[in-house]
Amino acid sequence: MVNNYAGGAMDLIYQTDFLLDSRKQEDLQRFAEGLNREQLLWASGFLTGIGITATTQIRAGSAEVCVTVLFGTETGNAKSLASALATRLSAVGVQAIVQDMLTYGRAKLRRDHVVLVIVSTHGDGEPPDSARVLHAALTKGQIPDLQGKRFAVLALGDASYPRFCQAGKDFDTALAAAGATRLLPRTDCDVDYEEIATHWMEQIIGALATNNATHTTMFPAPTPLAKSDHISLPATLVERVKLSGRGSSREVWHLELDTDESELHYTPGDSISLVPGNPPQIVEELLDRLELDHLASVQTRHGEIPLVEALTSRYEITRITRPFLECYAQLSEAKVLHSMLSEESANDFGEWTYGREIIDIIGQYPIKGLCAQSFIDCLRPLPARRYSIASSIMSSPGEVHLTVAAVRYSSHGRERIGVASTFLAERLAVGRSIPMRVEVNTEFRLPENLGQPLIMVAAGTGVAPFRAFLQEREALGATGRNWLIFGDRHLSTDFLYQREWLRWLKDGRLTRLDVAFSRDQEHKVYVQDRLRERAADIYAWLEEGAAFYVCGAEAMGRAIQQALIDALRSAGRTQEQAEKYILTLKQEGRYQRDVY
Ligand SMILES: Cc1cc2nc3c(=O)[nH]c(=O)nc-3n(C[C@H](O)[C@H](O)[C@H](O)COP(=O)(O)OP(=O)(O)OC[C@H]3O[C@@H](n4cnc5c(N)ncnc54)[C@H](O)[C@@H]3O)c2cc1C
Ligand SMILES: Cc1cc2nc3c(=O)[nH]c(=O)nc-3n(C[C@H](O)[C@H](O)[C@H](O)COP(=O)(O)O)c2cc1C
Known about the structure:
The protein is of the alpha/beta class and 596 residues long. Strands 2, 3, 4, 5, 6 and 7 form a 6-stranded parallel sheet that branches. It has a 6-stranded antiparallel sheet with strand order 14-11-18-9-10-15, covered by helices on one side. The protein has a 5-stranded parallel sheet with strand order 21-20-19-22-23, with helices on both faces. α3 runs parallel beside α8. The site of flavin-adenine dinucleotide has 23 residues, from β14, β15, β16 and α16.
């Protein structure tokens, strides 16, 4: 099978004409063609290790090169990069400690000599929940003097958000302001972060090597191969059922995918990621507006392919990112675009792009004679979308279930559709396969103790992982009590998986069910209101050791946190004690969130 990733490796090979003779290039290319993305990433790290060992040697076990890899994550990406970096560092003899920001007090900065920060941004330019306390301390200047310390920041983000990589920028600024020296300039990553992150790691290893070179010779232990559950494997859609009832303002689907052949392994709490195809009608409209030939050939990292294929399955053609606008504005004479990119407009950028898509820019600010390649060069690769797994492998072996809300809305006079959600809701035919990979989320896990009680709070599709939790607990014969607090718009149309919850309630698997249907009465009622109403019981369950889970929209996650503080306060705690109580819950792994 020809892999889809060799294009990137080939680009690199072409750039090394002056280094490798043609036979070596061919050998390398043949080798790269047989590998998938994870194997290529591993191979690149392995070769880097050999390269570094050949040129510089890092003093093994030296206290000076003991580094702290400090990560702040919400959905697990920063954490897995942090452990990949630590593995690479130990392969070249550098002792590295991986440290979660959640349990890292700012005073430790005084102790640690080299701190490598990997942090994502969530909400609207906010740090991940686990990084909030450290972020607040650092940005308020509550930080020791860090003269003589070294650091580097890898910032994860998504360029379609106006405050791109903001948390990483904040950490970088704060550490430098406290006197620490940058090992490298901050590196910002968009959603396709693997390549840039790998390059950053190589630079880090190089920078540490430069700083600590000695004459010891050593051979690096190869970085272990990525786990097989990180490889995209085919899953075949076998069933799609609409969960939302007739008349609902929502459109939510239950999907069942057959993974028997690919033996996809997952644990409740994990999600899957997949790269959807763009809606054909948007591709057609773009081609029409651009007046470009479908079959015009364009150079991509997947080699030379027809424009229509590039727009359908390789590039993001809807969401506007700043790099897209910068690129398009450079080709255009439209003053509006240039002024939108100016520093004075930085705060308006998000508002201006909200509800707009690339098609609007092309329509409103057309560029005469724009060639296919120039347009493609402005686009970013089509990012994968994540969906929580709604099933337990123990109760549905060989299957993955998903709960997908189709995104549909209208803005600026046009009907819009979400790329991935409508792909899953309508374009992916039953019987067709799609590659997907498991995104392991060790931060959202059932307790090992089968007797521990659970409180699960969900709104809308946030209920998906809790279905997996209950299936798993049922299969394991867990004895712990389970309480679900679920919210959506209407009881009659939006009670997702109603029959299953009621069955579990009847047979005692679900101990308690509270619902909040916001639009079934005059005053809106949400899950956070239920939490406040049930404050005494919530507190009692927590005191008895319950684990507290939240899944759904990010704004709801914030509202739940506030409601929990209120619940603790009504149970007699002060604000400060309530905040401390929540922090302890998080540190004990008894407060876990999966919000998006
Ligand atoms: C860890 C994780 C788990 C997830 N689990 C699930 C899940 O179980 N089920 C699920 O359905 N989703 C889930 N999601 C969300 C999912 O990944 C996608 O983000 C969602 O389906 C939308 O993707 P899309 O490609 O359809 O929309 P896109 O094409 O990406 O469009 C979405 C964009 O449209 C814009 N937009 C949307 N509505 C409006 C509006 N009213 N007005 C103006 N602009 C608007 C926003 O800019 C938004 O970012 C999860 C996300 C994460 C990170
Ligand atoms: C709900 C949500 C909000 C996000 N908000 C931002 C943002 O404001 N700015 C940004 O640059 N990236 C944003 N991102 C993108 C994440 O930073 C990116 O997906 C990152 O790889 C996540 O890393 P993590 O898994 O370590 O948390 C957001 C992602 C999600 C799911």
